[in-house]
Amino acid sequence: MALLSKPNEKTESGFSPIPVIDISDPESKHALVKACEDFGFFKVINHGVSSELVSVLEHEAVEFFSLPASDKTQVAGYPFGYGNREIGRNGDVGWVEYLLMNANLDFGSHSFFPGLFNNPETFRNALLEYTTSVRKMTSHVLEMITDGLGIEPRNTLSKLVSDKNTDSIFRLNHYPPCPHHINTNTNTNGDNNVIGFGEHTDPQIISVLRSNNTSGLQINLADGSWISVPSDPSSFFFNVGDSLQVLTNGKFKSVKHRVLANSRKSRVSMIYFAGPSLTQRIAPLSCLTDNEDESLYKEFTWSEYKNYAYHSRLSDNRLQPFERKAVKISLNYS
Length: 334
Fold this sequence. Notes:
The protein is of the alpha+beta class. Helix content is 25%, strand content 23%. It has eight helices and 16 strands. The chain has helices spanning 29-38, 51-65, 69-72, 113-116, 120-149, 159-162, 242-247, 302-310; strands spanning 10-11, 14-15, 20-22, 41-45, 81-87, 92-102, 169-175, 195-200, 206-211, 217-220, 226-228, 236-240, 257-260, 267-274, 281-282, 300-301. The strands form four sheets. Strands 3-4-12-9-14-7-6-5 form an eight-stranded mixed beta sheet. Helix 1 (29-38) crosses helix 5 and helix 2 crosses helix 5. The longest helix has 30 residues, at 120-149. It is globular and about 55 Å long. 37% of the residues are buried. Residues 165-276 form the Fe2OG dioxygenase domain. Belongs to the iron/ascorbate-dependent oxidoreductase family. Keywords: Iron, Metal-binding, Oxidoreductase. This is Fe2OG dioxygenase domain-containing protein.
């Protein structure tokens, strides 16, 4: 039976409204659609991804982030490679260090594997197996969503992220413990919590997150309030990206989210950003609109949107330039 929420999960202010979906149940397709409409975010259980595989990758990630800064900066780069504090090149900063990789490359081609890891082959194999498993799970979830929307064929969405030429990204984030008393140059929110990763939406189609047992992730609700996402290292969290919002003509909402630093414990997260090929054209699906006039967005290629996103700030509304302007019709009355 599909689950929309579990009563024993709490945020700091009470029970969590975040949908929990059993993706082993085909009837969960309707719960998935509702979660995408209401939250743009959901947690999946019974996902079939090996917990041992996840543990191996997390261990290797912790080993990497434990290296001296001088070693890690040897593989600094943009857009792929190691980064610390600086997020992108447009002025955003956070209490985070990360390793960003192209998920569709042969991981053996990454120059930082030899020399920086005690067991580079272990890390390489774990990355390959993990991204393969998560890609398969992502395709399954997208096909369930397509079923829930009543769209044929059922691979209408999944084919966009399963082709060998897709532009998907894999990111490892490490949020070190952050003291409560910090200098005034550190980015904070209105409650003086230190921002690990500032509020933003993801530009891709859908993102898949897994983290250790340290909380920090928050999502923004429709009423503008922020709620904390209870950590659960045994599950995966999905969030709707900008491109899926466009493909569904606004039916699904790209969720704004952020990470707050923890004062006592490190947080390690791994995110698979499922993107289409660079030449893929993104526009509202014709089966979800009666005619072109109902389309809320202009057509664009993923390459065009990605380029725009990379030149914007995290908190910018990146879809705004691609929205169709409302047409005002003047009526003459006799």
